Amino acid sequence: MNNQSSSHSLTQLIPALCRGDHALLSEWLTLSPKKMFIRTVPCVVVGCAPYGFSMGLWRGAEMGMYVAIKLPLLIFCTLLVNGLINGLLAAVLDSGITMRQSLQFLLAGFATMSIVLGALSPISQALALHAPAANADHARDFHAFILLFHTAVVAYAGILSHHTLRRFLLHFSKKKSAANSTFFA
Predict the structure, then answer these.
(1) Where are its TM segments located (predicted)?
(2) pLDDT digits (tens, 9 = 90+) for 67-126
(3) Please, are residues 107 and 79 in contact by the beta-carbon 8 Å criterion?
(4) Which DSSP category does 7 fall into?
(5) Any domain includes 51
(6) Which uninterrupted H or E stretch holds 62?
């Protein structure tokens, strides 16, 4: 990847995040947090908003819009809390990872998760558009299937992002045992 961060477009950033590119994260760690957020926040919004819309679409377009707004906000709130907890654990376990780095690692992981969710949102939207009406006889069974589908998709995206996060922790930590303890805590 090009070392000049201003030359990265979203189309270059997405594949690098999905690969778990260490050069990308190393570059981010040298950037100011503001520049790093400018790089990753669009990934979270672009990925989570369409998936959120598809989650709420079964109940109507208005609900889809509410969830499209709510899901990225929920991700950012979760990021803040997890970043603080992981940063404190990293300090206690003497991993050499700072609070800022912890937040950046998690933001990269959430950006990866969001990209995966965004990529799977057309499938989710197709399910919602082909769903029976909410008051139909077999709507309850279909609703159960949709809930199971969303659970599986979010779990899949979460596993991929956690894999990326763990690789970052192992790469940048002073001790592998501290990185593993921070990750699994």
Answers:
(1) 36-53, 73-93, 105-124, 144-165
(2) 999 999 999 999 889 888 888 888 888 877 788 878 888 888 888 899 999 999 999 999
(3) yes
(4) G
(5) yes
(6) helix 61-92
Q: Is residue 5 part of a domain?
A: no
Q: What is the rounded average pLDDT of the residues 39-54?
A: 91
Range of the domain at 94: 18-184
Residue 162 to residues 7, 36, 134, 158, Cα–Cα distance (Å):
27, 19, 35, 6
Q: Of 183, 158, 160, 159, nearest to 170 (Cα)?
A: 183
Residue 5, pLDDT score: 42
Three-state SS at 114: helix
Query: 2 — phi, psi (to 5°)?
Result: -70, 135
Q: Token pair for residue 108?
A: 């990269």
Beta strands (DSSP E) in 30-132 are none
The domain tally of the chain equals 1
Asked whether residue 124 is domain-assigned, the answer is yes
Q: How far is CA 14 from CA 97, 104, 153, 184, in A?
A: 24, 16, 19, 26
* Predicted TM-score of the model (pTM): 0.82
CA separation for the pair 125, 41 (Å, rounded): 23
CA dihedral 71, 73, 76, 77 (to 10 degrees): -110
In a domain, 119, yes or no: yes
Model confidence at 6: pLDDT above 80: no
